[in-house]
User: Fold these one by one.
Assistant:
Number 1:
Amino acid sequence: MENNVSHSSEEAAIASICENFRTHQSGCFVLDKDDASGVATLTICNPTRKNAISGSMMVQLRDTITQLEQWQQGKAVIIYGAEGSFCSGGDMNTVRQITTTEGGRQMSILMQYNLKRLQNLHLLTVALIQGKAIGGGAELTTACDFRLMTKRAQLGFVHVRMGITPGWGGGSRLVKLLGPSLALDLLTSGKQLNGDEAKRIGLVNDVLDCDENDIDDVLLKCKQWLQQYVKGAPETIRAIKAIVVSAMDNTLPDALKKELEIFLTVWGGPMHRNALSQNLKHR
Ligand SMILES: CC[C@H](C(=O)O)C(=O)SCCNC(=O)CCNC(=O)[C@H](O)C(C)(C)COP(=O)(O)OP(=O)(O)OC[C@H]1O[C@@H](n2cnc3c(N)ncnc32)[C@H](O)[C@@H]1OP(=O)(O)O
C-alpha cells in the first residue's frame, strides 16, 4: 500500500515535470521493434544538434520506455544516434532556459527516472556509440547493459569543463562500473576516450570492426555481435536480466531471495522440461 502511494506520487511529479519540458521542442526518438528477431532499434534523432536531447525528447523517452516495457516478444534494444554521432548530451537550447535550481532539479529527476527505467528493462540494452557520446550522452550509455564503440568514436564525461557534474545518474553508475578511482579520473579530467582506450579500462565491451561511414554496416555488425546473447527465449532472457537488476539494487541477502523467486518462474516450466527430455550435452 505504502509502495503504491509513493509510486503514484512519483508518477504525478514526473507528469508535472513533463508538462514543463515538452514545450522545449526539437528532435525525437524513433523506435523500431522487430518481433521476428526480438531486437529493436531506438534512434536518438536530433542530427542538426549532434543528437542532443531536448526537453520534448526527455518526455518522449519516458513514453518510449513504456512501449519497450510492454514488448513481450522482445529480447534486446540497440540505442544509437542518427547520422553517425551518438548524443551530445542535453540540448543547449533547452538547458539555457532551465538554469534555475528548480529547472536543474526537474531535468535531473526526469532523466534519472528515465534512465533507471531503461536500466531496469526486461530487455538487453546496447549503446552503439559512433561519433561522440558526451555529457548526458555518455551518462545515457552507463544505463545500458552493453556499450559498443566504433574505432573513431569518442566517449567523454565533459561536464567538468562546463562547471557542472553529471546529473542524469551517470556519475553514480560510472563508479559502479569502474570503481571510484577510474570514475574520478574520467569525471575530473573530462577526457574523451576512443574505442580502444574505453575497452582497455572496461568501460565498453567491444570495438566494432565496421565501416563507420555506413550505418547499415555498423548496425549489421552490432546485431551480429548481439547474436551470442539473444539465442535464449524471451522469458529466459527476461528472468536472467531480472536477477542482474535485482543484484545491482539490493543487498546480497535480498538479492538471493529475489533470485530464488525468479528461479521458480522458470524451473519445471515447459522449456526446462523440454530441455531435460532431450538429454542435452553442452560440448
Ligand atoms: C547533465 C547533462 C548536461 C547538460 O544537460 O548540460 C550535459 O549534457 S553536459 C554536455 C552538453 N553538451 C555539450 O556541451 C556539447 C557541445 N557541443 C560540442 O562539443 C560539439 O558540437 C560536438 C563535439 C558535439 C560536435 O562537434 P562537431 O565539430 O562535430 O560539430 P559542431 O560543433 O559543428 O555541431 C554541429 C551543430 O550541432 C550543435 N550542437 C552540438 N551539440 C549540441 C547540444 N548539446 N545542444 C544543442 N546544439 C548542439 C552545434 O552547436 C552545431 O550547430 P550550429 O548551428 O551548426 O553551430
Number 2:
Amino acid sequence: MIRLEDLSKRYGSFVALDGLNLEVRPGETLALLGPNGAGKSTTIKALVGLLRPSRGRALVGGVDVWKDPVRAKAQFGYVPDRPYLYGKLSGLELLRFAAGIYRLPRAQAEARIEELLVQFRLERFASSLIETYSHGMRQKLSLAMSLLHAPPALILDEPMVGLDPHATRLVKDLLREYSKNGRAVLYATHQLHLAEQVADRVALVHRGRLLALGSPKELLHQHGSSDLEEFFLRLTEDASESASVLA
Ligand SMILES: Nc1ncnc2c1ncn2[C@@H]1O[C@H](COP(=O)(O)OP(=O)(O)OP(=O)(O)O)[C@@H](O)[C@H]1O
C-alpha cells in the first residue's frame, strides 16, 4: 500500500536519507522509530510530496507521489507533527474547505464532517475559530481533516505529542483500527510504548538508513532485548556517543 524504493535525500553534501526501502502492507500499521535526526521526518515529507527526494520513489496505492501527485494524494491522509491550521476559520469551515479540495459531494461531505466531529469530540467547538483551539484540539482537527476522504493509507508524524489521556486513547484506537479492512498506517514516533502497543511492525532508522525491521516480538527475540527501549538504545548507541562528544 505504501512503498519506498531507494528513497534518498541529500542536503548539500549531507546525506539525510540513504536508499531507504520500506513497504507498509495492506492491513498493517507500521511505526517508524529512530533517534533525533535519524531521518524520520525527511522520510515522511518525501513520502507525502513535501520534500523532493534526491533519488528513489515513493508510492501510495501504486501511485508515484512525485509523478502523479494529485492522484497519489487521494490515496492518503497526512497529519504533520506541527499542523498549520488557518486560525481565522472555524473547525467546521476548515473541514468544509478540505472536503471541497477532495471534491466530496456536498451531502456526503456534511455527513462525514458530522461523523468526524463526533468521533473526535469536537462538535461543541465546531463553530469556534481555530485560533481559540488548544494544541490537542488542533491535533484532533488535523486528524479529522486527514480522514475526510476515507483514504486507503494514513501517514502521521508524531501523532501523540501533547495529547491528554482521553485524546491519546482515541488516537491509539484509531491507529489500531484504521489498518483493518486492508488499509495501511505509517507513523513516526519517539514513544516506544506506542510502537509496542500499536504497531504490527517497527522500522528503526538511524543516520538515514534502515537498521531493523520486524514485529516488536521478532525484533526483541532477534536482538535478545527485553523491551523496545533496550533494543532501541542498544542498536542506536553510537548516536548517543556522538551526541555526548558534541555536548
Ligand atoms: N533543511 C535542512 N537542511 C539541512 N539539513 C537538514 C534539513 N532538514 C533536516 N536536515 C537534517 O537531516 C537529518 C534528518 O532530519 P529529520 O528531521 O528527518 O530527522 P528526524 O528523525 O525526524 O528527527 P527528530 O526525531 O529530531 O524529529 C538531520 O541531521 C537534520 O539536521
Number 3:
Amino acid sequence: MTGANLVVAEGLVFDIHRWITLHPGGQKILQRVIGTDITNDFFYDPTVKTMIQNNFKDYNDYDVEKSSISVLTDDTYKENRQSFIKSKPYSVANAVDRINAIAFKNRRVARHRHSKFATSKLASMVVSRISNLEDNSFQPQQFNEKELQQPSPYIFRRYILSNIEVVTRSNAETLVKKLTFQIIHPDDILPKFLPGDYIEIMSYVNNHVIIRPYTPLQGPSENSFCILVKIYKDGIMTQHLDKQLRNFEVKVRGPFDIADRRTYLSAPSPILDSITRPSSANSHTRTLSRLHMDYIKRPSGIDNNQMNNILGKRSGILLNKEREDLCWDCLFMVCGGTGITPMLQLIQYHIEKANSNFELYLLAAFDKIEDLICPKYLDYLRQKLKEGQGKLEVKYILSKPPPTWRGDSGSIDEVLLYDWIRENYSTPPPAIPPKISNYGGSNFTSNLTHGIQNMQNMNAHNYLNPNNYNVNNNPIQEVSKNNENSKHEQQNNVPLTPKNRPAPIQIPPHNNSIDRQYNQTSPSYSSSPYSSSPLNNSPAILLMNERHNYMSLFARDNSKQVKLVVCGSNHFNRSIRKNLEKLVFPIDEKALFIE
Ligand SMILES: Cc1cc2nc3c(=O)[nH]c(=O)nc-3n(C[C@H](O)[C@H](O)[C@H](O)COP(=O)(O)OP(=O)(O)OC[C@H]3O[C@@H](n4cnc5c(N)ncnc54)[C@H](O)[C@@H]3O)c2cc1C
C-alpha cells in the first residue's frame, strides 16, 4: 500500500497518516517512526495496554475487510489527505515541531506518555493484522519460550545511537566508526546476536528508502550493541549514519543468518526475487528454508536442546556444532578491511561462551597502518585471554606499510598462509619436522640445510614441542624487534616485501598422487609424491614436500575441531581461495568463505 504511513503495534498494523499533522507531540516524531514497531511507545504503561486490549476484544479475529476502517487505496488515500489538509492545516503539529526543535536541539524529541484519547485515536487507525511471517511448515526444531519471546526479525525497531567512536587512526583515508545503539524503552528486548548474524538498517535518504546490512557486535551493556561502519565518501548509508548525532534514533531489523544469504547467492531464483525478504539477498521462504535446513542440521550425540536454545532457527554456520558450547578448538580467521567484523563476533563469542580451551588466530589485511581496525581492543582481548583458557593471536599484513613497519607486508600468498597455519597448528605424530621454510635472504639455504639436519635427528617429541615453532606474539609489529622478519631485516638490511621473498612454489593442482597420499593409513614424511623425483634434493621440492605432507596430515587430523574462516571483498576471498588451493588445503571440509 503506497502512500500510507504504516506502523506496527501489538501485532496490528496502523496507518497513521491522518494523525501525523495533528499529533500533539509534533509531526516529526511520527514521521520518524513510520515503518517501525511502536508497541512500547504506546503500551509501556500497563493500564494503557489493558485499555487498548479491551478496545480490541475481538483482537484475534479482527477482520480488516469487514471493518469500518478499510484499507486505503492510493486514490482514497490521496483524496482523504487533500480534503484533510484543506480543512485542517498543519497548525498544531507544526507549532509543536518548532518548540521541539528549540527544546531538543541535537537530541531526539522527548518520549512522551499517551493519553486515553491518543490511545483510542490509534485504535481507530488499524488497517491490518500481522500474520505470522515465519514459515509455519518449516519447523525442524522445538524452541523454548525464551526463544519464542524473541522479537520478530522482520519488523524494524528503533534504537538510540548512544555512542560514536573512531576505531581506525583519525588520519585514515577512510575512517571506520564504531556506533553503539541501545534500546529505547525498558520493555524493549534486544535480540540475542550470534556469530554469523547480520542486521539491516533502514533510513530515508533523498526520499528513498535505503536498507543496508551490518554486522552486530556485543555492546558495553546487555541492552546495547555496536556496529563498525566504514564511512565511504560517496556511500549513501554510511554518509547518512555519519551525520547522526548521539541520542538520535536508528531503524534496525534482524538478526538474519548469513547462511541464508550464502544459500540465496548460490541459488538465485527469479521466483524468490518477488517474495518479501530482507534486502538484496536473504529470504525466509519455504524454498529457501529447505536449503537452509542443510546448514541447520544438528549432529547426533550433542545436547540438541541446549544447542537449540542458543541457535534458535539459525544455522550457526560459523560455529562448531560438534561442541556443546559451539566453540572451535582452533579457529583460523583471515580477513580484509571491515571483513574483520564477523571475526570480532567469533572472538567475542568464544571469550564469553567457551567452556574449554580454544585457540583463535586472526590474520588481518589492511592497506595502511592507519587503517587497522580496533587494534587496541584486539590487543586488550589477547592480553585478557592469557589469564584464561583461551588464546588469541593477531597477525597484520599491510599492502602499503610505513618504513617503520616490522610486520608482514604485501598481499597474503600461499607462503604466508602456510607459515601462519603451520606455526600455530601442530598435527599429532607421526608429524613433520620443524618448519624449514624461510622467507628469502642469504640465510635461506643454510636454514634449509639446518632444517634437514634437524629432520634427520628429530623424534616425535620434538614435533610437539611448542618451542620448535616460531610464534609471533606481538600483534602490532610496527615496533616489534623480536620476530623472524625483523631478524631478517637486521641481518640483511632489506625490508621484507613480496619481491624479495622467494617466489611462491606452485603446487600442482589436486591430482591422483595427492589423493593417494591422503588415503594412506600410516602417513610418513617419506611418502611425499615428490620423494622419488631426481630433483628431490632441491630446496624448492623439499619445501613443496614439506607443505604437502603437512597439509596431508592437517586434512586427516580429527583430534581437534578446526576451521578457517575467510571474510573480505569478493576479490579478497577469491585470492585467498586460490592460495589455499595451491597449498592443497582441505577447503571443502575446513574452510568457509563469507562476503
Ligand atoms: C552481510 C553483510 C554485513 C556487512 N557488515 C558490514 C559492517 O559490519 N560494516 C561495514 O562497514 N559494512 C558492512 N557491510 C557493507 C554495508 O552493507 C554497505 O554496503 C556499506 O556500508 C556501504 O553502504 P553505502 O550505502 O554507504 O554505500 P553505497 O552507496 O551502496 O556505495 C557507494 C560507494 O561506496 C563504496 N562501497 C560500498 N560498499 C563497498 C565495499 N563493500 N567495498 C568497497 N567499497 C564499497 C564504493 O565506493 C561505492 O561506489 C556488510 C555487508 C553485508 C552484505
